[in-house]
Amino acid sequence: MNNREEDVDPGAIRHSPAVAFLGPLGTYTHQAAYNRFSTSVTYEAKNSIAGVFESLSSTIPLAVIPKENSIFGSVVETYDQLRSKAVGSTVFIRGEISLAVQHCLLVRKGIRLENVTRVLSHEQALGQCTQFLSEKLPNAKTVKMPSTASAATALFEPEYGSTSAAICSKICVNLFEGLEVLFEGVQNEKSNFTNFWVLATSLDLPLPGTSSTKDSGRAIIRLASLTEAPDVLSTLASLGLFVNRIDRRPYAGDIPFRDIYFVEVSKHADRVVNGIESSSKPIENGEIRWRDVVESAIRRIDSGKWEARMIGIW
Predict the structure, then answer these.
(1) Which residues make beta-bridge pairs with 20?
(2) What's the whole-model pTM score?
(3) What would the mean pLDDT of 276-282 be, rounded to a whole number?
(4) Who's near 248: CB < 8 A, 6+ residues apart?
(5) Within a 10 A sphere around the Cβ of 249, how many other Cβ atoms?
(6) CA angle 59-199-20, nearest 5°?
(7) Is the pLDDT of residue 270 over 50?
(8) Is residue 6's pLDDT more than 50?
(9) Which CATH number fits domain 104-184: 3.40.50.300, 3.40.190.120, 3.40.190.10, 1.20.120.1730?
(10) Looking at domain 2-100+192-200, which of 3.40.50.150, 3.90.640.10, 3.40.190.10, 3.30.365.10 is its CATH number?
(11) Of 141 and 229, more confident
(12) What is the signed CA dihedral for 99, 34, 133, 129, rounded to 10 degrees?
């Protein structure tokens, strides 16, 4: 097995910024990161979402983490990490990636469908592909693996290689030389999407892989309650911003039953916020920056009742 992440010049890699992601290589988080950054970065796989957060530093200034799935909902571990004091201080959300979760059936090159007697994958992926397996491989045995990526690498083991297939992400074909795709889109549910966040160690760090510098008009504000019965609705109204969604997690402190709210806001066409126009036009055209609009909104929150901080903007 030749484990190759990208076919790029080794000299260029040394000067590329590093991106941490929830590993191992070949996961859907890796796929999302690669879709966003391609060969403009190097990739650092981490064993947990907490490990991704902890790895952010001057040597690994970027990261990609899962935010939510269209079927299974928010990723709780990610939101728990957003409670950290470092988030909004030395770690910021700088972008969002949407990925269609498309399972593929991979085999070693030369293996035909009629040769397959076992299908390897993570338990959830196997459960999400039952219709395909029933139709195309009704007699094949399913084998549970720690991850979809580990299923792909197992195809190189003598125990599995000549009679097995793996259900995993298509990126595994690029990572592990010697594999090919027999079928794409083998999952039961075709509208299965996962959103991911791009993290960075600074609000001003240039993100590789894109030349655009315009605001996309999204931000997330963390509100930590300092009282037992906060008036959430009035506080949201005082922001004067268009609220897209609200997530809530327990406050990570000594006082029980206090909450932290993650409020995702966005620009709204032709919307005037407390006399300040929130426009999608860049600042050089004479308009107020989206970042200034969000910071102004945060200053309107009662600091005696809430600890408010902008933890992301993109």
Answers:
(1) 44, 63
(2) 0.78
(3) 42
(4) 259, 260, 261, 262
(5) 17
(6) 50
(7) no
(8) no
(9) 3.40.190.10
(10) 3.40.190.10
(11) 141
(12) -30
